[in-house]
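Here is an idea for our session: we take a single protein and study its fold together. Start from the sequence, derive the C-alpha cells from it, and show both lines together. Once you have written the record down, we can walk along the chain together:
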Amino acid sequence: MTDSYRSEMLRALTGELSASEREVFERALATDEELRAEWEHLQKVSGLLQESRADSFRPFFATRVAQRIKSEREESLTDALVWLFRPLAPVAIAVVAFLALSNWNERELIGDDASFFAAIFAAVPATPEAAYVLDM
C-alpha cells in the first residue's frame, strides 16, 4: 500500500475528500481487498478512539494541568524540606538550650536585673563598660 492511499484514507476518515475524490476512493475500496481491510481497521481504531475520548478535555484543560503540576512541585519541595530538616530538629533544640544556658551563666555581662529573655539571648546593653568586658 502506498503512502498516497494512506493519506487518502486519513482524509476520507476525517471527511476532507471532495465528492469526486470520494467516488474514486470508494471504487478503489471495491476493487482492492488489502485496501478495504486496511480501511476497516482504520475505521475500528478511529471508533475506539472516539469512544475512549476523556471527558476531562473540557475548556481550559491545559491551564488545569499546569496548575496541578505547579501545586505538586510546591508540595514536593515542602515535603522534601520537612523530610530534610525533621531529623535536625532535636539537634537544633539541644543547641539552642546549650546556648541559652551558656548565656545564662554569663549574665553578669548584662546585669542581674536583666529579664530572663535578655539573659538567655545575651542581649548586652550598648554601654562602654559592656564593650570593655566583651573585648577581654
User: Anything to note?
Assistant: Helices lie at 3-14, 19-31, 33-51, 61-85, 89-105, 116-120, 128-135. The two ends are 96 Å apart (CA to CA). Residues 88-135 form one domain. The chain has seven helices and no strands.
